[in-house]
């Protein structure tokens, strides 16, 4: 079988699996967030945390819960990372310095998993599983909670409440993430992913020293992909054979990344009582994904770079067992879902492949985006799309029976401005510094791309990197940490305020003049708005980086 | 609003501590327990020789000398405590020079035409610990290793075939030859 056939079959298998799973999982998630009963384990959790699960929260209270929980998460995780020497299973490693600990804590709480450290050389097992993996679960549950709160804003009528954050957080963790992660971890172990609590020093066959590095890898790997977190247990992330040993585990990881973001479109349709709306959203995401995958695969499998031409194939930074097709697929899915895991070095991708990764993030992580953040992100873009359509025909725009007025558009405009400002100001500030060229791992336009990629990844909460750049200076640690936290929390607060303003309204009955938002024409409009907005924002920056490199 | 925030943060702290016990201790220990039922599968698949661990089936090792099949170039010298790719960009002249240099070296070592050296022999892997080489790179090394070990080439080719892992289910990923397994098999067939 040739590379092309195998590569296409791989994509077909993925699509088939998603088609089979997204309906039952999506409906399950809709039940989880609309159910009125509590599991016994959940009641125990509520009692221990002092939460009244029947209390409904206003948008403001919901937002304060998210922000408060996130800030506590940063503080506790910083304490774990800085004090890990006092924890068991620390592998005799010292604690992190404050700047790296702040960056890492912000990163994992913000569901970004940008890593300025190498896992195997920096962290003990307690910090990995008790600190980082816990935030992998919880940051994902936060994203889903916010998405559900926004959907409730569309569903609910004349009410001042959006649900209870603590209940949504607990249910997402207990009923969705934990069971699937458990299953995923067992399957990954069956595929050879490591789960131990010790390192084994040894002498290799040819007489060199090597350490058979251990760790609770499989448990962390499963939630790393499922929660679209992306932070590797090891420095090489999913390129490391202990994280991702074979073609099987690679497909499983890609599936885990897409599982919840894709299934949430079904959840959306089910909760709205309008399944076709869920399909329309999935359609827009699917178009963006398909184009991106085609472009990135053409770059990598087509060896479209000087180095790939010199070597005969684009294998620099890629593992033999994955090759170009599985690396391009993983890279597309990881940057399209806001996961940021890598099974190959994106820094060594062809300009088209690496540029594709960058654009996936610049779209605002909505193809299909992170768990929860993808749905609220694309719904915000849907608001922009109906607004544009409303301007064209001179009619007050509506979406899903809710009027989009000045107040809603204010929140939406601020949302769409937040990440581009963080990306472009951050990149600009870094480039203006004399020290930055020293930090770049590559010369010329590609060095600029490394900086642009870093701030794009941080502000959009992706976490992948053009890894040649050295980001351990206080300047990068702090500015990237702020980009991650602001890029996460500001949009969340705006989404919750938008949700609250929608929940207050009554439903506008659909009339002959209402723009139907479940038809292909709206899918086209939505994709068009997303692409144009991204293009207008980032084209100048892109033309200095990957575009210049591709044309060189 | 600050009092509201601190009240929510306190609830958050309590929830975080409880959930850390469940997700940060209970979950990984449970997964570890299941892993114990899978034999060596989740233990890093150690390879033993005379009772001593000499490697992992999954971790690439450094081999030099005529009698060994060689691994792919590694950006970190196969250091498993610092897994890493080179991160050299696609038009970086340093990378282009490295590729040219490796092409000359491999062609000289294997006694083949420079144009016949496959891409995986010229490029550093994603982890620095790639356990595999392409079947093409293995085939290129067969005559040298067979001569050094005083074995028939057909015997060595059979060993290469045994150490070759196909695509998962016939279409997942790419085929590769496990270098450590191959070299172990060579040692058994023709002790050094």
Provide a descriptive summary of the structure in words.
The complex is a heterodimer of chains A (552) and B (192). Chain A is mostly helical and 552 residues long. Chain A has a domain at 373-551. Helix content of chain A is 66%, strand content 2%. Chain A has 20 helices and four strands. Chain A has helices at residues 3-34, 40-49, 59-82, 98-109, 119-122, 125-155, 165-190, 217-226, 247-272, 275-301, 306-311, 323-336, 351-362, 373-393, 406-432, 436-439, 444-459, 474-503, 520-544, 546-551; strands at residues 200-203, 209-212, 398-399, 402-403. Chain A has a two-stranded antiparallel sheet. Chain A has a two-stranded antiparallel sheet with strand order 3-4. In chain A, helix 6 (125-155) packs across helix 7 (165-190). The mean pLDDT of chain A is 97. Chain B is mainly alpha-helical and 192 residues long. Chain B has two domains: 1-43, no CATH class; 58-189, no CATH class. Helices cover 46% and strands 8% of the residues of chain B. Chain B has a three-stranded antiparallel sheet. A two-stranded antiparallel sheet of chain B has the order 1-2. In chain B, strand 1 (46-49) and strand 2 (52-56) form a beta hairpin. In chain B, helix 3 crosses helix 4. The mean pLDDT of chain B is 96. Chains A and B meet through helix 1, helix 2, helix 3, helix 6 and helix 7 of A and helix 1, strand 2, helix 2, strand 3 and helix 5 of B.
């Amino acid at each position: 079988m040739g590379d092309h056939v195998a590569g296409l079959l791989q994509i077909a298998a993925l699509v088939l699996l998603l088609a089979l799973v997204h309906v039952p999982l999506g409906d399950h998630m809709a039940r989880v967030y609309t159910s009125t009963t509590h599991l016994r384990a959940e009641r125990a959790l509520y009692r221990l945390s002092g939460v009244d699960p029947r209390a409904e929260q206003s948008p403001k209270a919901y937002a304060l819960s998210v922000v408060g929980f996130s800030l506590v998460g940063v503080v506790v995780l910083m304490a774990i990372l800085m004090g890990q020497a006092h924890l068991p299973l620390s592998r005799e490693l010292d604690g992190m310095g404050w700047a790296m600990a702040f960056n890492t804590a912000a990163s994992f709480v913000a569901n970004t998993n940008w890593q300025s450290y190498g896992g195997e050389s920096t962290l003990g097992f307690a910090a990995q599983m008790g600190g980082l993996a816990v935030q992998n679960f919880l940051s994902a549950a936060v994203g889903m909670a916010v998405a559900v709160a926004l959907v409730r804003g569309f569903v609910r009528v004349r009410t001042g409440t959006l649900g209870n954050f603590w209940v949504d957080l607990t249910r997402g963790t207990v009923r969705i993430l934990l069971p699937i992660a458990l299953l995923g971890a067992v399957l990954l172990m069956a595929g050879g992913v490591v789960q131990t609590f010790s390192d084994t020093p040894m002498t290799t066959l040819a007489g060199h020293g090597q350490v058979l590095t251990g760790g609770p890898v499989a448990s962390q790997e499963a939630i790393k992909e499922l929660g679209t977190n992306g932070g590797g247990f090891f420095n090489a992330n999913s390129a490391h054979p202990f994280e991702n040993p074979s073609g099987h585990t690679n497909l499983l990881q890609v599936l885990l990344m897409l599982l919840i973001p894709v299934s949430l479109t079904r959840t959306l349709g089910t909760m709205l009582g309008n399944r076709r709306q869920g399909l329309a959203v999935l359609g827009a995401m699917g178009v963006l994904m398909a184009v991106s995958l085609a472009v990135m695969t053409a770059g990598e499998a087509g060896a479209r770079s000087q180095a790939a031409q010199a070597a005969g194939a684009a294998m620099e930074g890629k593992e033999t067992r994955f090759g170009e097709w599985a690396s391009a697929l993983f890279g597309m899915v990881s940057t399209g879902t806001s996961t940021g895991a890598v099974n190959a070095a994106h820094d060594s991708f062809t300009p088209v492949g690496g540029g594709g990764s960058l654009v996936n993030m610049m779209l605002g992580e909505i193809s299909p985006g992170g768990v929860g953040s993808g749905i609220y992100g694309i719904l915000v873009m849907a608001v922009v799309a109906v607004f544009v359509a409303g301007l064209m025909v001179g009619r007050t725009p509506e979406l899903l029976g809710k009027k989009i007025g000045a107040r809603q558009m204010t929140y939406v405009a601020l949302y769409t401005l937040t990440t581009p400002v963080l990306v472009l100001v951050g990149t600009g500030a870094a480039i203006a510094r004399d020290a930055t060229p020293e930090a770049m791992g590559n010369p010329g336009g590609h060095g600029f791309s490394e900086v642009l990629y870093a701030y794009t990844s941080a502000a959009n909460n992706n976490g992948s990197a053009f890894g040649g750049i050295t980001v351990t200076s206080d300047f990068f640690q702090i500015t990237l940490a702020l980009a991650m936290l602001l890029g996460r929390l500001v949009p969340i607060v705006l989404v919750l305020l938008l949700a609250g303003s929608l929940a207050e309204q009554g439903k506008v009955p659909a009339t002959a003049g209402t723009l139907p938002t479940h038809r292909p024409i709206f899918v086209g409009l939505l994709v068009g708005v997303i692409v144009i907005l991204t293009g207008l924002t980032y084209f100048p920056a892109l033309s200095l980086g990957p575009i210049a490199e591709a044309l060189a | 609003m600050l009092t509201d925030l601190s009240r929510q943060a306190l609830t958050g702290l309590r929830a975080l501590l409880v959930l850390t016990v469940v997700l940060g201790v209970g979950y990984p220990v449970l997964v570890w327990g299941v892993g114990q039922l899978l034999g060596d599968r989740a233990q890093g698949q150690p390879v033993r020789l005379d009772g001593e661990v000499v490697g992992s089936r999954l971790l690439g090792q450094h081999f030099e000398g005529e009698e060994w099949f060689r691994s792919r170039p590694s950006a970190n010298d196969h250091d498993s405590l610092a897994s890493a790719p080179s991160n050299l960009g696609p038009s970086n002249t340093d990378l282009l020079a490295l590729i040219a240099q490796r092409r000359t070296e491999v062609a000289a070592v294997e006694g083949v035409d420079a144009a016949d050296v496959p891409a995986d022999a010229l490029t550093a892997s994603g982890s620095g610990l790639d356990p595999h080489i392409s079947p093409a790179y293995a085939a290129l090394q067969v005559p040298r290793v067979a001569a050094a070990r005083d074995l028939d080439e057909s015997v060595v080719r059979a060993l290469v075939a045994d150490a070759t892992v196909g695509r998962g289910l016939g279409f997942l990923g790419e085929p590769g030859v496990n270098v450590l397994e191959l070299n172990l098999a060579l040692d058994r067939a023709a002790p050094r």
